[in-house]
Protein: Glyoxysomal fatty acid beta-oxidation multifunctional protein MFP-a
Amino acid sequence: MLGKTAVEVRADGVAVVTINNPPLNLLSADVILSLKESIEGALIRDDVKAIVITGSRGKFTAGFDVTAFGGTQGKKTKMELGFMSIQIVTDTLEAARKPFVASIEGPAFGGGLEIALACHARISTSSAQLGLTELQYGILPGLGGTQRLPRLVGLQKALEMILMSKRVDGKKARILSLVDAIAPADSFLKARAILKSARLEVQRQNPNVVHPLVCIDVIEQGIVSGPRKALWKEAEALQELRQSSTCRSLIHVFFAQRQIFKIPVMSKMNLLPRKIVKVAVVGGGLMSSEIATVLVLSNYQVILKETNKKHLIDTISRVKVLELFFLLGFSYNPYLTHPAESESLSLKQEIFSDLEKCCPLHCIFTSNISTFSVKLVGERTKSQHRIAGIHFFCLSPVMPLMEIVHTESTSPQVIVDLIDFGRKMRKTPIMVSDWKGYTVNSMLLTYLYVAVLLAQRGVDVYRIDQALKSFGMQVGPFRMIDMVGLQVFVVISKKFVESLPARSYKPQLVPILQQDNREGERSGKGFYNYDNCGKASPDPELSKYMKTTRDASNVTIDSELTKLCDSEMVEMILFPALNEACRMISNGVVIRSSDLDVASVLGMGFPAYRGGIIYWSDSFGSKYICSRLEKWSKEYGDFFRPCDYIRERSAKNISLTSETRQAKSQL
Structure:
């Protein structure tokens, strides 16, 4: 029996049983017994999920060796007579609880086809030859073919094939439903390669989720064992996945995204958005060029206003699109104006006052205000009802979030217009109350600050990025800074530090990198090296900049931080961002806490399958989060100090996900 069949169990859980009796893989008592042993061995293995029967050298099996027919045979008992047909083919193969598939190439005649008929599914090449040829030798099919073939192809076709020993090719067999699918000769190898590649890609992109892998398993089940078995597996998998934490988290984010557009006091107004055609961007500079690029790509006519001709030309040159509509003033009547660069309160107030004089009454005034309240900036005007703030999240260009800052005076019509404006730019607009300093961006900046703090104290930059990527963030913090550009990060960071010094961290590493013209992805170097296609790779020279930073700031390598495991590192980097989110809830900046879950997913790249940063906090509890922040605060300063909201919730052991307090604006 040795060598008559071979078994290979693959990594995907499929056991391939190969009939190996060249040249035609003819059947005999020894081959059948060897096949029985191989099948039974595969059935008892826990790592085997499905079994494929095939033949070596491109030939399934041409049936029994005809030299066994016609000779004198002694009388057999009933059990002996049914040994092959009933005990092996029917009771072992057909009745198996694991799916069997016949992979047919070349001939499948007589007993060979009967073995295939007992399998749960059959796949063949188009050129394969199938037939029950026993009658041409004066006998009949003896391994169940007389029963199984009529049930598959119908009585009339079965009689034709059996009585005439008629052979059909794979294409005809598929039409007759004799086989379930036609595939190339190497179909299983190709299918396994494709499925393996899909699994690796899923594990690379989403290492913490299982439902895509389960989906691949179900698809594979259909390929291996036919659709019916796969449908049962699909139903069982669906029932299990519906109860998973991943499903609950993704459903939470799904509904939270739809809740964002539901503003309580506006629900009965039935206001329709007005059409915005032109947008004026006031002030040249880096932020202006970023905003202008987004607007032009969204098919808005853009007007750039800059008093300095050189600054205007520089701004235009930074706009990364071919078509840009601009004027050196306001010859057109814009529908929306957006002062982008200045952080001087008096200058902002002067700009808004001038805009009011020269713009039509339907024009909306917005600003990317960070240091001052929107109300304060517009207090010299008589148009506070059409003034709002907009943060385009240029700090995170791959994230589709837009923040709309409104005051008590901002009219509902303006809010409706700006929501529609954001959606047309393929952004998800989130409504926030007028609050001194950054709002949602404070979560992102804090997240980046802590990553830089750890790096300056000796934790490897690339290990930090990998830990956050493995957790599920779209990109690691340092890769994000490179994508944004170090100059943009410094500009926005400076404003945040000036506005909220007690809650910010001044990163000394970034300016040192800039001194060597390392500006991120656009310059080809930042924290990473970039090739001509923008592909990032670790830079071995980064270590010298880390040393220069530590020497300049008198900071030594912190051995406790370098020993952090990945999960501890993730907590230390993300809990301060959660702290900022809770501070916004406490101050009534957002309408509901789930708005910040959406903001963290779309503005930070937080994994949606974890439900957003507030929802995720429930996996730890307020007591644990508060204790960790307090510990780090003692060791590394007030930057980590938990806000009152977290302290209060921790003291009462209340979840951080409870509904937010009434928003300031009473929206």
User: Anything to note?
Assistant: The two ends are 81 Å apart (CA to CA). The first strand starts at residue 5 and ends at 9.
